[in-house]
Write a structure and sequence with these properties.
Strand content: over 45%
Structural class: mainly beta
Shape: globular
Number of helices: 0
Largest sheet: 7 strands, mixed
Distance between the termini: 40 Å
Helix content: under 10%
Number of strands: 11
Amino acid sequence: QVRLVESGGGLVQPGGSLRLSCAASGSIFSIFHMGWYRQAPGEQRELVARITISGTTRYADSVKGRFTISRDNAKNTVYLQMNTLKPEDTAVYYCNAESALNTDVRYWGQGTQVTVSS
């Protein structure tokens, strides 16, 4: 069992930056692929960025070049650095963990609101 807690969301002006954090507890962090998803009002949840246990990253086309996902296994934490934010980035951002040993084992955080507006 893994508990995920997101933090770092808030209100930011277009062009600004935010750094989201997701702290994991309850299991061995290093065996989980980690990802960030987001869900805007009236929209389906979509993958924003993913980082595997080996450090391989993947990004949605809409955020490529602006967002960076990283992980610190020693701190059991995954980050999402978001730069040059746009109003269309406004959404609830969710942390996700997927076991590299069993893909049926998945966990979600409670979400953190990111609002980009002037």
